[in-house]
Amino acid sequence: LKMAASSSHPPLSHAQLNLIFRNCETLYYIHQIFLQGLQVRMEKWPVLVLGDLFDMLLPLLVVYQDFVRNHATSLEILTQCKHNHNFYTLLEKHENKPAAYGYSLEMYLTFPIQRVSTDIA
C-alpha cells in the first residue's frame, strides 16, 4: 500500500495510510525483539527468567495505547477508502491471497486489541 500511495494515481493518500496503520511497524518491531528474547530464554529451559523482557516492554506500552486510541479512526478511514474502486480492488486482491488466511484487513487491525483484552480478562 505504501507503493500504491506513492503512485501517480494513488488509491489512498499517505495521510490515510498513516492513519490506518498507525504504529503497526513499531509494534511489529517491538514484537520481533520480544520474540527473539523469548527464543533465547527457551534454549535455557527449564530455567526461565522473563522479568527483563517485560521491563523492556513497560515503557513501550504508550505505543499500544496510541494504537488502541487510533483503532476506531483507523477502521473509519479504511471504510472511507473502500469507496475508492482502485483501493477496494487492491485490498481485495491482497485479502484473497493465501498468506491472509481468509482474514480481512479490519480483522488484522483488530487482532492486537482483542488479544490484549483477552490476556487481561
SSE arrangement:
Elements: H1 2-5, H2 14-20, H3 24-42, H4 51-57, H5 61-81, H6 85-95, H7 105-120
User: What is the total tally of β strands?
Assistant: 0
Q: Classify the beta-strand content into a percent band.
A: under 5%
Number of helices: 7
Secondary-structure element pattern, one letter each: HHHHHHH
Provide the gyration radius in Å. 17 Å
Overall form: elongated
Describe the structure.
With 121 residues, the chain is mainly α. It has seven helices and no strands. Helix 5 packs antiparallel against helix 7 (105-120). The longest helix is centred in the middle third of the chain and has 21 residues, at 61-81.
What is this entry, summarized?
The chain is an all-alpha fold and 121 residues long. The chain has seven helices and no strands. The protein starts with a helix and ends with a helix.
Entry keywords:
mainly alpha, single chain, 7 helices, elongated, 121 residues
